[in-house]
Specification:
The structure is a homodimer of 343-residue chains.
Chain A (H helix, E strand, L loop, with lengths): L4 E2 L3 E3 L5 E9 L1 H4 L9 E2 L10 H20 L8 E6 L5 H7 L6 E3 L6 H14 L5 E8 L1 H8 L15 E2 L2 E8 L6 E6 L14 H20 L8 E5 L2 H14 L8 E3 H4 L3 H4 L5 E2 L1 H12 L11 E9 L3 H5 L6 E9 L7
Parallel strand pairs in A: 3-4, 5-6, 5-7, 8-13, 11-12, 11-14
Antiparallel strand pairs in A: 1-2, 2-10, 3-9, 7-9, 10-15, 14-15
Amino acid sequence: MESKKLGRQTVRFAHPPAIAGFGSAVGRKEREGPLGQCFDFASADDTFAQMSWEKAETAMQKQALSFALQRAGLTAEDLDYVFAGDLLNQCIATSYSLRAQNVPFFGLYGACSTMAEGLSLGAMLVEGGFARAVAAMTSSHFCSAERQYRSPLEYGGQKSPTAQWTATGAGAVILTRQGKGPFVTHVTTGKVVDKGICDTSNMGAAMAPAAYATLRAHLEETGRAPDFYDLIVTGDLGSLGKEILMDFFRQDGIDLTGRYEDCGVMLFDRKRQDVHAGASGCGCSAVVLTGHLLRQMGAGGPCRNLLFCGTGALHSPTSALQGESIPGICHAVAIAAEKGETL
Amino acid sequence: MESKKLGRQTVRFAHPPAIAGFGSAVGRKEREGPLGQCFDFASADDTFAQMSWEKAETAMQKQALSFALQRAGLTAEDLDYVFAGDLLNQCIATSYSLRAQNVPFFGLYGACSTMAEGLSLGAMLVEGGFARAVAAMTSSHFCSAERQYRSPLEYGGQKSPTAQWTATGAGAVILTRQGKGPFVTHVTTGKVVDKGICDTSNMGAAMAPAAYATLRAHLEETGRAPDFYDLIVTGDLGSLGKEILMDFFRQDGIDLTGRYEDCGVMLFDRKRQDVHAGASGCGCSAVVLTGHLLRQMGAGGPCRNLLFCGTGALHSPTSALQGESIPGICHAVAIAAEKGETL
């Protein structure tokens, strides 16, 4: 059997899986942001009618999956696999959301790269003939993340200007073997990259080198220039990490201005919403993709070729206390509005 | 393209990936157990010459992968993907162990089912033509797990008789497209199963229903009877969960006696080693597989057909404190010594 790999990190699909559905659910602050009108559902008070923030996150995942299935005209019973994970310890938002679904499940941990990781694996299983339909899903919740990673909300801790604001949101995408598109045409899988950044309030700086490494690999292995894409998005480097990534490319003589954006910058209005360096969390890139970007790729939409690069910081509060630096990873997924543009 | 699925949960491989290498590293107590002489390396004091238990776990993973690669005659550069995860919050044992390896990485969270999950995904990517060689890897460490899930060691807390002892160990398996075997012939992917058990000191009871569900699905979808297999192993239900699983099958008129064992029961001598209901942790089934079971499948070995069923409990300390029950999952991987026996 011939390898489907281009170089070491990229797979090109001869039969690109279709994105048959997508769904999103967000919190109030996300609803009040610049993309607020794009999401399928927003909770007025971020509780999603649950008794704990963790259960709220689970409820959000169920809603996102439900919208995605509805749009695809499928039920959970039609899914061969779900790929999902989240930021909570032991990924409990996910395992509790899938307790209600009768579907084979692969649990992922990729921090904020989880949506891209799930899309990558899901697309390979569909194209490989192992599945007709799969879902990729993830979430984050500002309040459950604050409690776990930082301080209880009641403490009212100050944040440094380089810190990001964990998005409250869940996104789900359904991939199928047949469909009208858009289509997943390539996936480039990241390696762990660690340049020694130890400041957990500056995740953008920690993850930018991983984003750069995966983007470079993707462009080299596909032979594409950045301007092949109408939009390259990372998710989520925030405003500082975005600048660092653009600087890396400038040193290579490549100017990404106008063609590159970061989901952490897109989700909130930084002037109006006091989110410091922008948004973060698994849910951020997931809802920007499922609420906004995929809508831009419909018939006649402005975006025909998208490179979606999920970026994750793979540290923990324990590793930070032990003085360890923050390893990063980035997985890139190329999405084309039409199949014909893929090869 | 024809689906490779048998029923809803099982994939049968037309070209079964080969297990080209396997490696294991364990702690002192595991070395002193009944399988002690099988492992590639044992640390005399469980520190693996590191300054923290978390870093010890990372060091153990690197050793296991190194032994597995050596046995396969490969280097990390030859791997298309590594599938790995562990029990620590944010899976840090894994992300730090792979920081040193120049290889595309998919992070998993499947609790103690991680080795089976990684083998399942790795085998699909190899058979699907996306990879020539992949690794599946996982670990657990008694001391890092106690600190995170229970009490600091210094506290000297008592355990209930139904509790299990987290194994200190890491295992890695290399799958390749070509090889002498043994071969991964089928994978059956689990669903989340939760029968309402809330006692985190009785994980065997929480996971046994998931193991039963996946085993039933595997047997039905493949049309095999349990006696097709020389050995069916779960990992890790412990002594109590093992009895519960055998009871479930007895109610179906099936007696698994003599054909079924649990990795949590095999790793330690419960009479001599004071481990209550047996071993647990991602590392337990990983080292029983890589230290003992796969050695039984070599040329002329006593085991020609093995069904390896990884079982994971998908709760967290937070979900337990919130009164939630413990969801379980089980992924089954069928391994045959010879290719001819697979279809």
